[in-house]
Amino acid sequence: MSFWPQSRKARRRLTILLAIAPVLALAVGLALYGLRDSISLFYTPAQAQEAKVSAGRKVQLGGLVQHGSVVKHPDGNVEFVVADQKATAKVVYHGDLPDLFREGQGIVAEGSFNDAGVFEAKQVLAKHDERYMPREVSKALKEQGEWRGEGAGAPAYGKPAP
Amino acid sequence: MIVELGAFALILSLLLSVAQTGLSAVGGARRSPVLAGAGRGAALATFLALLVSFAALIYAFVTSDFSVANVAANSHTDKPMLYKVAGAWGSHEGSMLLWCLVLTGYGAAMAFFGDSLPPRLRAYAIAVQGALGVLFLAYTVFASNPLARLLDAPIEGRSLNPLLQDPALAFHPPFLYAGYVGFSVVYSLSLAALIEGRIDAAWARWVRPWTLAAWSLLTVGITLGAFWAYYELGWGGWWFWDPVENASFMPWLIGAALLHSAIVTERRGALPGWTAFLALAAYTFSMLGAFLVRSGVLTSVHAFAVDPTRGVLLLIMMGVAAGAGFLLFGIRAPSLNRGGQFRPISRESAIVLNNILLSTATAVVLLGTLYPLIREAMDGEAVSVGAPFFNLTFTPLMILAFAVLPAGPLLAWKRGDAKGVARKLWIVLALAALLGLIAYAVVQPRKALASGGLVVGFWLIGGALLEMGERLKLFRASVAESLRRARGLPRGAWGTTLAHAGLGVFVLGASFETAWRVEAAQALSLNGSQPLGAYTVTLTDVVTVEGPNFLAERGIVTVTNKVGAEVCRAAPERRFYPTGAQTTSEVAICAKGLDDIYVVMGERRAGEGGKPAWLVRAYVNPWVRLIFLGPLLMAIGGIVSLSDRRVRLGVGRRTGEATS
Predict the structure, then answer these.
(1) Would you put residue B480 in left (φ > 0), alpha (ψ -120 to 50) or beta?
(2) Which of B 26-65 lie inside 8 A of A, CB atoms?
(3) Would you list the DSSP string of B186-199?
(4) In the sheet where B518-525 sits, what is the strand order?
(5) What is the DSSP letter of A104?
(6) CB atoms A42 and B386 under 8 Å
(7) Helices marked H in B517-623
(8) Do A159 and B233 touch (CB under 8 A)?
(9) Could B584 and A41 be called an inter-chain contact, meaning their C-beta atoms sit closer than 8 Å?
């Protein structure tokens, strides 16, 4: 084999390179694919409307839980409305809400919109400290001028029920 | 008074660690035993001073001295004693003090136990450890003093987050930090060797025990954290690829790579540069973890008080420490001795492959963790990277690593016999595949991918056992001969087998639990029931109980099997903590062999016909115990290896191994 280098040092370098290259290629390929398909974008209801998020695409929806909108059905289903300054979105969720889920509080729901435009949440996250709001929510609301100051304290994400 | 003493001791320890750095550095450079000895003394004194300071903080927590800001913010008179003590490291300030305590503790250990280290290397290493101490202690003193007093002491404290009031979590941070910060020692040793410009087998012999200790402790810490998440958070899961979990996982992965590459450097003198690089990287990832957790740049389950100034300071500290390390590495690495030669098929090559895969996996985890930051900086979009990304990228790399793992210990150093190893391993592969096929056929519903996971798990365990069998000449020599061999076998070999088998045990548990978990969630009124796989879950009663610092509604949930016999009685609780007005769910777990029946109760709501109902969520988590048992075996493997005479004594010459 003429392309196989003569010097021992060069040969060793080539061997190591040959071992690393496929692993690296695999990792880079998977990472690029993963970053395209399996990350979820964050929207507030208004942003989601504007971006026309397609049904079934996995996203995160964040905003304030509208007062008086929470309906708990006996079968374990929960419905509520998430709102920002400009728009609202209806959310359905099956399961137990986080301990600090409250009306008027900031939450993040993970899931997707169905064909009827209702958000089907697989997970709902709320913060344990009522002064705190998920960072994405506070940022988006700040941009809309809805924000009323930032609380200190020890914020810790509440349990997102599955 | 005691608190002031603690604050004084904290400042004293900062000054002492400045002295430790200066004296040891000059002592090393001038080859002066007197100065180096003084540096060692300073290292011990630093640790003792910090011990006083930490004791003072615990004292303040135990006596509920709310004039201390940190105690007022994180403690409460009603809190059980264990959590009062644990509160000392439950907050940002207190945990930084714990970090410093562990850091200086390792420095003192090097000063105290390091007699067999070359004097110059030891002086430099203690100097570097001292410099790290100066960085972190200065941060603690000036930016996050845990003993700062309040002008107006409140009558009652704000208490520790009830979720954190848990035995597993009380011990999780000390273990985690002992692991994280343990890598500071290999960082210091690495930097010291780079200053000297010599990295050899003797150096690696010193790096290995410290890495083993740090890595084993980190394993225990991470496992405790996962176990806590599993039974305290009530989501039934144990790993969420949360940024903070990743922050602790990355040093663990690098530590695992370092463990293996240090063996190559120790035995064969090969890969010295790479081992030094990993040693620097391990502590850099530890510091990155501290930064990610505390700066609040990433939203996470664990975020401490978000304070951008602290974040910037921590980033600067990390930049200084890592920058200095890698700069020196860049200058010195080209002149390092290349060390021993080896063939493409050899144990060295297997370990190189292990290192390539572990480092790439770390890089992938790092990318996934930091990607939200990158994306936000680039186009301002908020994204989150969750489990799907890591399952897609991290898992295949690990499967590759697991596929070749059992071959590694069977290969000879320098030049291995691929055919011979394949002849030994094919039976393990056949057995693992058979067990996987049985699982595929028997366990309902059928899942090919998870059955494949089981094959990998059995393959790892079988490979580890086979390797041990080979060393003992099991079934090939007489029983007496095998027993004699078992006695003569170095502890390190037992450690390897335990750790590799533990990894297999974990893979088995993780594959089985993830694929075949059964879940049921329904709102039940009294005596209502719901099916849960082969079981039926009935809400028999709900009672009110009063805890030391909480009020609770306790559900009595009866689990029955198909024929109606009672399997267990679970008592999940819903606790209300008046301080801070927080509600938490207490999970009830019935252990059934390796499986768990896991019951969570939700809040009271109006059910059918106006009767009160409670959402009862129940899971059957099959083989979930293996998920926590596996890492425990790995940690025990690490400790067993650590107790190896050769490692413990840092024996200069390699005494002949019992087997090839």
Answers:
(1) alpha
(2) none
(3) HHHHHHHHHHHT--
(4) B518-525, B612-621, B595-606, B588-592
(5) T
(6) no
(7) none
(8) yes
(9) no
Residue among A76, A154, A161 minimizing CB distance to B161:
A154
**DSSP letters spanning B208-228:** HHHHHHHHHHHHHHHHHHHHH
Q: For residue B439, what are the CA distances in angstroms to B131, B307, B403, B452, B622?
A: 55, 51, 19, 9, 13
Q: Touching check for B386 and chain A: CB below 8 Å? A: yes
Can you name the residues that pair with A40 across neighbouring β-strands? B384
Q: Which of residues 514-533 of B touch A (CB under 8 A)?
A: 519, 521-523
Residues 6+ apart with CB under 8 A from A36: none
| Residue partners of B416: CB distance under 8 A and separation at least 6 | B343, B345, B346, B347, B349, B350
Residue contact A76–B367, C-beta within 8 A: no
Q: Are strands A39-43 and A59-65 parallel, antiparallel or unpaired?
A: parallel
pLDDT along chain B (660 residues), means of 10: 93 97 95 93 96 96 91 86 88 90 95 88 95 95 90 81 77 91 95 90 89 96 91 80 89 96 90 93 93 72 59 90 94 79 86 94 94 83 82 93 93 87 92 94 88 95 93 84 87 93 96 91 87 91 89 92 89 85 84 90 77 88 94 96 70 38
Residue appearing with tokens 């056992």: B465
Say if A51 is an interface residue toward chain B (CB within 8 Å). no
- Looking at chain A from residue 66 to 105, which residues have their Cβ under 8 Å from any Cβ of chain B? 72-76, 94-97, 99-100
Rg, chain A, Cα only: 23
For B586, the closest chain A residue by CA position comes to: A99
Average pLDDT of the residues of chain A: 73
Please state the separation of Cα B472 from the chain's center in Å.
32
Q: Which fold has domain A41-143?
A: OB fold (Dihydrolipoamide Acetyltransferase, E2P) (2.40.50)
pTM of the model: 0.89
Task: Provide ipTM, 2 decimals.
Answer: 0.73
Using CA coordinates, name the residue in chain B closest to A160: B235
Q: Measured between alpha carbons, how far is residue A22 from residues A12, A18, B274, B422, B423 in Å?
A: 17, 7, 20, 23, 26
The domain spans of chain A are: 1-39, 41-143
Residues 6+ apart with CB under 8 A from B420: none
Q: How far apart are CA A89 and CA A96, in angstroms?
A: 20
